[in-house]
Structure formats: C-alpha cells, structure tokens
Amino acid sequence: xxxxxxxxxxxxxxxxxxxxxxxxxxxxxxxxxxxxxxxxxxxxxxxxxxxxxxxxxxxxxxxxxxxxxxxxxxxxxxxxxxxxxxxxxxxxxxxxxxxxxxxxxxxxxxxxxxxxxxxxxxxxxxxxxxxxxxxxxxxxxxxxxxxxxxxxxxxxxxxxxxxxxxxxxxxxxxxxxxxxxxxxxxxxxxxxxxxxxxxxxxxxxxxxxxxxxxxxxxxxxxxxxxxxxxxxxxxxxxxxxxxxxxxxxxxxxxxxxxxxxxxxxxxxxxxxxxxxxxxxxxxxxxxxxxxxxxxxxxxxxxxxxxxxxxxxxxxxxxxxxxx
Length: 323
Ligand code: FO1
What we know:
The mean pLDDT is 96. It contains twelve helices and 14 strands. The chain has helices at residues 10-22, 47-57, 74-81, 93-107, 112-123, 154-160, 184-189, 205-209, 214-220, 241-247, 254-261, 307-321, and strands at residues 2-7, 27-32, 38-40, 43-45, 128-131, 138-145, 148-153, 167-173, 193-196, 225-228, 231-232, 235-236, 280-283, 296-299. By secondary structure, the chain is α/β, with parallel strands linked by helices. Bound molecules: ligand FO1.
C-alpha cells in the first residue's frame, strides 16, 4: 500500500510512527513542512524535516520531542558567552552537525530534496521524506507591540514569544513562487491513501498546502483523504495551534478545522473558491457531534499517549478511509 502524509513536526512525527506500526509493509511518503526553516549563525535549520527524520530514525530526544537525544549545548553556551544569540533557539551540539552538513550541501548547489535524501541515508527513517518545496518558504508572523507592527520569524514568535503576542497575520513568505519538490505531486496522485496527521493546521499542514499545486493535488487525488483533528474539546492537543487558528479567523474546534480543510464531497457553495480536501475527518469522542459537509466523520479517543494508542488512531483513520 502507498501512503502519503503531509507532516509538520512533533505531532506529525508521533503520528507517523503509528502509521509505520499499523502498516509495516507500506511504502510511506512524507511531505514535510519547510516553513519553519530558519537561518541562524549562517546555518540552514529545518526543524520539521529534522523532527520527522530523527523521530522515525531513532535519534530524537524523547523528552523534548525535537532535537537529538544525549544532546549537549556547549556551542550554544559559548555563543552566549560572546553575547551572540538568539538564546531562545536551542542549538544542540549533535544537531549542529546536521545543520553543518545541510548548509554545506545547499551551498554546493544541491537542492533541499537531495540534502534530505542524503541525511536520511544515515537515519533510515523508513519513509521517503520529501520537503514540500526545494525553494525557500519561511513562515513569518506579523505582530503589533510597542514597536508598532512588524514581522518576526515564526521561530521567534513560537519560541521567544511563546505565541503570546497575537498574530495579526501569518505569512508563508515565498510560497507564491515555490513549486512542489520533485516527487510531491506524484506521491499525492499515486497514493492509495492520503493522510493529514494532527499537525498544526495553519503553520504546518496549511503551509504545505500553500505551495502552488499541492492543495489542488490533494483535492484531485483518486485516493481517499483522511485527516485527524489536532483539536480536542476546543483545545489544541499540543503546541499553540489555537493561537494560529485565531490568527486566520478559524475557531479552535475539531469541527471548524475540519470545515477549514473542507469536505471533498461538499458541493462548493457559491463563492467558496477552494475545493474541499477531506473524505474523512477523525475527531475525539468529545467532539463526536462534529459535522463536516462532504466528509464522513468518525470519533475515537485521539490522545497519542503511546505507540499502541497512536497505532489504534491510525487504524481508525485507515478504516475511515476504507483502506
Ligand atoms: N522547540 C522549542 O520549544 N524550543 C527550542 O529551543 C527548540 C529548538 C529547536 C532546534 C532544532 C529543531 O529542529 C527544533 C527545535 N524546536 C524547539 C522545535 C521547533 O521550534 C518546533 O517544533 C517547530 O518549528 C514547530 O513545529
């Protein structure tokens, strides 16, 4: 079976471990979000791609959910001693090697998709990991504070501000000029099932869908498309998805997010431009009354408390997909 999943960072990676456990013989392609990417100290850092690679490759810090296990932060301490920041971004010593190798390859002219493939030779994540695009797309957040309106990089808003300053808008800089990375559109067209894990629907899944061609490819695929709600009972399971949803005017509820993605069977009402994406929307039992026009809704507990529970969630999503 060919499975294609759009994934962000920590939540998406945890879900993907359940996909691997539920379908040990499947060919899994992951289309990873690169909007979180940032250049620091001259190094290109790809948090969501690295989180998928480390989590499925066995190198992730289980405690943090990001970065490497057995990590140290000596270089970061030395940078701080020079007064060189930013202190709010945890730059691990082992993680640094990944950024050095990636930056060297990018500087030598290799596209990001080749860099990801090369890094995965070491980590063997057991999936084909594709960046959403080889062109740079960076999520920036427009905030208003005592310095007036300004844009900050998503990582600064997420890590330094803890999404505590309301986002007036969230912009995927460069998305309009980006093209899907090699293999992305085929992975959506040729899949037997397409999954939208419970990643952040705005800055992870939404950013991937913002690359021209990707949303249309999901809407057009002959494969069933099933999403899993990142919101349970009106609250974001992890991260600060609620702050992101508020920024785009979407209520923080399983139903609102499902309707934001849209049902594929929905007859677009007059004036609704975007095609719906979902054939199925898996929600938690507390949200069992969810209705998404054009999509079938199923309910079960959605907390990915351990691998067994995550695998059960994946199985429920596959059942909803009818595969
Ligand atoms: N998340 C944090 O909460 N604090 C950090 O200091 C931090 C550093 C970091 C370094 C490398 C990396 O790959 C991820 C890192 N993350 C950190 C996670 C990252 O900021 C977010 O997970 C994603 O960008 C949002 O999904």
